[in-house]
Amino acid sequence: MEKMWSGRFTESASSLLDEFNASIMYDRELYVEDIEGSIAHASMLQEQGILTKDELVLIKKGLAQVKEEIESGEFKWVLSDEDLHMGIEKRLTSIIGDAGKKVHTARSRNDQVAVDFRRYVLRKNKEIASLIHEVMRAFHTVASKHSETMIPGMTHLQHAQPTNFAFHLMAYGSMFKRDFERFEDSYRRNNISPLGCAALAGTPHNINRKSTADALGFDSVSTNCLDTVSDRDFAIEILFNISMSMMHISRLAEEMILWSSYEFKFITFSDAYSTGSSIMPQKKNPDAAELLRGKSGRVYGNLMSLLTVMKGLPLAYNKDTQEDKEGVFDSVKTIEISLRILKESLLTLTVHEDNMQAACKVGHLSATDLADYLVSHCNIPFREAHFITGKAVAKSEGLNIDLSDISFEELKSIDARIEKNVMPFLSIKNSMNARTSEGGTSTVRTVEQLAAFNTWLDNNK
Ligand code: ARG
Question: 453 pLDDT band (50/70/90 cuts)?
């Protein structure tokens, strides 16, 4: 089949090269952006007197038909057309004749692919941010019911201090808020039009880049064509944004997997988001959460892959750059379904408050409170208070009880300076509620945090 660029060639391309060179089997994902880009470009060419009104009418009609054919599945994607840009242009020309051959005036596939892919990535930055927003709402919905549900706060996966479940969930809420802002920020930074840069150096035709930028919803026009046609920072950014967000998801998934085990039994996933075993009839496995944890692997891979493709590339466009798309498509699909699954898993899980509460009665969670009491009420230096508390913990272990259940007499026998007013400091609930510093876990502070989070959600829809 004759290529669009075959003027200087005498031999036809090998079919092996066709297969290697083509992106048409996957870049068709960009067909909406490609058709809109061509309409904006052709409209501008007409405004500038480069195309006639009649030609523009034909081009628009033809492109509308191409779009319909793609959407109905009628369109023939042919490997030897190389990429969607040429596939669409070829079909357009076969529908409308010579006017189709004029669309590419003052344009190159280099700025064409740059505009298509950039707009796809911009759109996905917005769509993913909005899915994250939905997940944040789900966090808020679940957390709102649990600002008094105590749960052991951990460091090193060992019991540390009592917190509440809402406080714990809102830690993830904070991570997703940063993620949301990162996607929005990338959108703002990259909302710049590449169209009109042509192959690498601009064009001698009297084009109007602002007009196409406005038509396509860009904030402004890029300043250096050489940079623009080979810039894929926007793609690397979304891959990074996705990786960061999937890393957060994997941390939560890991905790949920632990929490759903018999050892913890803090939560139960709904049947709709659990799976069974082919051999062990009793099993209910957290496969959804495990995949949420595991999918970070492939999105990190896609990020590393594109960073490596771009490393050391001389200016300007090189075919290496065609390797930018599949990883982005894959990461986008991965995070989109992950966020949907995460939201539904959250909204449908059962929280076992009693088990969370019971877990707070082991591990001497109020030990820091005893040390703080010794400092503030007995005027004992913190290092010494730490040591005395350690003795009280050892004593409790010997008695096989939690520090929160130790008697006043036992404490007094460890250090005579301890007074009866120590007792409230041992209570787990008091321990949690004592942490009233900004951002702390007390119910009062948690409720405040939930309210601020809710306001933020309302203001950032
Ligand atoms: N399919 C190509 C890509 O995705 C389009 C740009 C090709 N430009 C060129 N001069 N070969 O990067």
Answer: very high
Tell me if 230 CB under 6 Å of ligand 1: no
State the Cα–Cα distance between residues 38 and 41, nearest whole angstrom.
Answer: 5
Strands 158-164 and 220-221: unpaired
What three-state secondary structure class fits 425?
helix
71 CA distance to ligand 1 centroid (A)?
Answer: 23
- In the chain, the percentage of residues whose pLDDT exceeds 90 is 93
Q: 317 with 230: CB under 8 angstroms?
A: yes
- Give the Å distance between the CA of 297 and the centre of ligand 1: 28
Q: What residues contact residue 93 under an 8 Å CB cut-off, 6+ apart?
A: 100, 101
Q: Which of 277, 376, 407, 413 is catalytic?
A: 277
* Each residue's pLDDT tens digit, 14-65: 889 999 999 999 999 999 999 999 999 999 999 999 999 999 999 999 999 9
pTM given for the model:
0.95
Residue 184: both structure tokens together: 């929005």
Q: Which band of pLDDT confidence, cut at 50, 70 and 90, is reported for residue 230?
A: very high
Angle between helices 233-259 and 109-144 (to 10 degrees): 30
Nearest CA to ligand 1 atom 3: 322
Measured CA to CA, the distance from residue 289 to residue 249 in angstroms comes to 9
Other C-beta atoms closer than 10 Å to the C-beta of 160 total 16
Query: Distance from the CA of 244 to the center of ligand 1, in angstroms?
Result: 29
156 part of the active site: yes
Ligand 1 atom with least separation from CA of 84: 1
pLDDT at residue 13 greater than cutoff 90: no
- Which one of 89, 232, 322 would you pick to mutate in the ligand 1 pocket, going by the greatest count of ligand atoms within 8 A of its CB? 322
Among the listed residues 38, 18, 12, the one whose alpha carbon sits nearest the alpha carbon of residue 109: 38
